[in-house]
């Protein structure tokens, strides 16, 4: 290899990239140590003099022949232009294939124009690319899943609001009208009809009970105070109705998007319901804080012991609510030391 020079050969032999020099006929004139190792050979003289094409890829991975005249790596010898490829499969000495990225450039040699190759095993790169695509696909699926959850929850909240409005404006108003009619009838009923008066008194009591129960039902479906006055007022009202003494901390003077307020309210409502049912608590503390995001915390002094994994704690619905709005949920519940349910919900810009 006098045309390349002894010093140059020494330099090329020390670089980690594969370097091959091929003559005008496509035969290997030189390979550095990296080129020997890449194909699993022991010495450079095992490669020198061999056809580069027949050594690298005489046939494709499916077993079909790959004619040398179609080899893109030899093209620079004819065109004088460098070329590059990422879609070749090379064969090692043991017969195994590997994906390769390669570069080929023309080189003038005494016998005619040859080619300089550089290539590397692209297996790791392809694995990284595959992992990246899978990660991106998983992220897209997760984003689509959260968006679908959000749409479903927003649809549910819309149905809740409409149902509560229909109960208030429909059935409740009719019951109120009925109650007024019964009371007016009771006032004009003569004292000589005590049995009828008793029946009317009972009907008035039943109508009032039905109105109270319907009002409670409508409140549970979707409290009107949430729409009229916002999250803090609704949470205070929820705490006042809680059978376990509950205090509320927090204050902010701006309305949040309706979807966020509704979602946050039902997160708190579900956390309170779980505390009342399972915690055996004597007191519950609700905190609401608005910074870059909405931070919620429901803390009880009950028995604790709620698993951190919400899928096994009965709080799956709560976790789904928070996740649907790209939020984060943390449950801290050491046995005997109460339970803290913390949620952070981003505020859309």
Topology diagram in text:
Blueprint lengths: L5 H9 L5 E3 L5 E4 L1 H6 L13 H5 L18 H5 L3 E9 L5 E13 L2 E10 L1 H66 L5 H28 L2 H6 L1 H11 L4 E4 L8 H22 L4 E7 L2 E8 L15 H9 L3 E5 L6 E8 L3
Parallel strand pairs: 6-7
Antiparallel strand pairs: 1-2, 1-5, 3-4, 4-5, 7-8, 8-10, 9-10
Walkthrough of the structure:
By secondary structure, the protein is of the alpha+beta class. It folds into three domains: 6-121, Beta-Lactamase (2-Layer Sandwich); 141-222; 229-349, Heat Shock Protein 90. It has helices at residues 6-14, 33-38, 52-56, 75-79, 123-188, 194-221, 224-229, 231-241, 258-279, 316-324; strands spanning 20-22, 28-31, 83-91, 97-109, 112-121, 246-249, 284-290, 293-300, 328-332, 339-346. It has a five-stranded antiparallel β-sheet. A five-stranded mixed β-sheet has the order 6-7-8-10-9. The two termini are 67 Å apart.
CATH level-two architecture of the largest domain = 2-Layer Sandwich
Please give the number of β-strands. 10
CATH superfamily grouping of the largest domain: Histidine kinase-like ATPase, C-terminal domain
Main sheet attributes: strand count, strand direction, barrel closure? 5 strands, antiparallel
Task: Identify the strand order in the major beta sheet.
Answer: 2-1-5-4-3
Overall average residue pLDDT? 83
Under CATH at level 1, the class of the largest domain stands as Alpha Beta
End-to-end separation in angstroms reads: 67 Å
CATH topology of the largest domain: Heat Shock Protein 90
The helix-strand sequence is HEEHHHEEEHHHHEHEEHEE
- Sheet-strand content, in percent, reads 15-25%
SSE-based structural type = alpha+beta
Q: State the shape.
A: rod-shaped
User: How many domains make up the 3D coordinates?
Assistant: 3
Percent helix among the residues?
Answer: 40-55%
- What would you report as the Rg, rounded to the nearest angstrom? 39 Å
Helical segment tally? 10
Low-confidence stretches: none
């Amino acid at each position: 290899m006098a045309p390349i020079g002894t010093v140059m050969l020494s330099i090329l032999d020390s670089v980690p990239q594969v370097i091959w020099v091929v003559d005008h006929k496509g035969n290997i004139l030189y390979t550095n140590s990296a080129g020997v190792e890449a194909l699993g050979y022991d010495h450079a003289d095992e490669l020198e003099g061999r056809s580069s094409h027949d050594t690298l890829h005489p046939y494709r991975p499916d077993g079909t022949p790959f004619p040398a005249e179609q080899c893109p790596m030899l093209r620079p010898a004819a065109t004088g232009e460098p070329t590059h490829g990422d879609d070749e499969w090379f064969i090692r000495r043991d017969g195994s294939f590997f994906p390769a990225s390669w570069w080929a450039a023309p080189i003038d040699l005494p016998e005619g124009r040859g080619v300089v190759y550089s290539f590397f095993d692209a297996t790791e790169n392809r694995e990284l690319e595959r992992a990246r695509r899978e990660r991106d696909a998983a992220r897209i699926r997760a984003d689509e899943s959260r968006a679908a959850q959000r749409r479903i929850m927003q649809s549910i909240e819309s149905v809740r609001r409409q149902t509560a409005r229909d109960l208030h404006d429909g059935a409740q108003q009719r019951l109120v009208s009925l109650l007024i009619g019964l009371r007016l009838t009771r006032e004009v009923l003569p004292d000589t009809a005590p049995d009828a008066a008793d029946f009317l008194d009972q009907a008035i009591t039943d109508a009032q009970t039905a109105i109270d129960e319907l009002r409670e039902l409508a409140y549970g479906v979707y409290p009107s105070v949430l729409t009229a006055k916002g999250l803090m007022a609704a949470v205070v009202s929820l705490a006042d109705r809680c059978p376990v003494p509950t205090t509320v901390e927090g204050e902010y003077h701006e309305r949040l998007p309706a979807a966020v307020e509704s979602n946050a309210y039902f997160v708190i409502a579900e956390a309170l319901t779980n505390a009342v049912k399972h915690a055996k608590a004597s007191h519950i503390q609700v905190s609401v804080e608005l910074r870059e995001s909405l931070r919620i915390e429901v803390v009880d002094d009950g028995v604790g012991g709620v698993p951190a994994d919400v899928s096994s704690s009965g709080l799956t619905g709560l976790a789904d609510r928070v996740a649907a709005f790209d939020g984060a949920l943390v449950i801290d519940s050491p046995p005997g030391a109460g339970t803290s349910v913390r949620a952070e919900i981003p505020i859309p810009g």
